[in-house]
TrEMBL record:
<dbReference type="InterPro" id="IPR030395">
    <property type="entry name" value="GP_PDE_dom"/>
</dbReference>
<dbReference type="GO" id="GO:0006629">
    <property type="term" value="P:lipid metabolic process"/>
</dbReference>
<dbReference type="InterPro" id="IPR017946">
    <property type="entry name" value="PLC-like_Pdiesterase_TIM-brl"/>
</dbReference>
<feature type="domain" description="GP-PDE">
    <location>
        <begin position="9"/>
        <end position="287"/>
    </location>
</feature>
<dbReference type="GO" id="GO:0008081">
    <property type="term" value="F:phosphoric diester hydrolase activity"/>
</dbReference>
<protein>
    <submittedName>
        <fullName>Glycerophosphoryl diester phosphodiesterase</fullName>
    </submittedName>
</protein>
<dbReference type="Pfam" id="PF03009">
    <property type="entry name" value="GDPD"/>
</dbReference>
Amino acid sequence: MFYELIPAHAVCAHRGARSLAPENTMLAAHKALACGAHCWELDVQRSRDGVPVVFHDHDLSRTTDAARLFSHGGSAPVLQTALHDFAQLRSLDAGSWFGRKDPFGTVASGEVTRGALAAMEGQPVPSLAEALRFTREHSFPVNIEIKEQVHSPGDMRIITEVLDIIQAEDCAGLVLLSSFSHEYLREVRRQWPEVPLALLSEGATPEETHPADGTASGIAGYLRGIGAQSYHPDHTVTDAGLVRELAALGITVNVWTVNDAAAARGFHDAGARCIITDMPQRLVPDGRG
């Protein structure tokens, strides 16, 4: 299973090595593997025709050329990810933006070379099946975050579709499933009692910061109630004390998104299992870049 394949102090590449390549592309996955990450993380949502695709945003404009490609006759382009079939999403350039925007300053610093930039041009939006084939071929464990489907709230089809693809690609022992949606996690647990599950939390509102009463015992009890063994808190709303208390209660804690090496060491020392990072090349000991 997933946790048996990674070390006690693991580094997980957030959306692949997204400081070295365009996020959630197969190029980012290859970079994550090359720089020594112990596992990688991706986001999955559903295309209009029911294909689970690897993409983070509900809007296509930040990381693709959809605004240009889908503009017709002066009308405003439809940019919502879920309102396009997979063939349309696959036709997008999900890579060229990286060189222009340089989201982590790695182009300006020279860490990303001109040759690497050329390879990014035309990178397609992957299907989940494609990503899982890569995971299986390289025995590279993956954390699949199931994004909430904002255009079809309450629609659980994505759960069945994701689980079916995991089984079809023979990746059952290589995956950890996570979500901000408590309902999704309950449905995953209903359909697949054995798969490792993680609840994500962030501090957008007080209610979203931590479940239950925010204490370690309250969080642990809530997680067990929905069938999750792991907790993924945003590093800005947690601290070493809470991580230590949760670990003592048997909860696996994976903290996101930590790009500072000293902060990563602090969370690992407190008992965090995984540090989810945009910069695995800087956090993996002897990272190969």
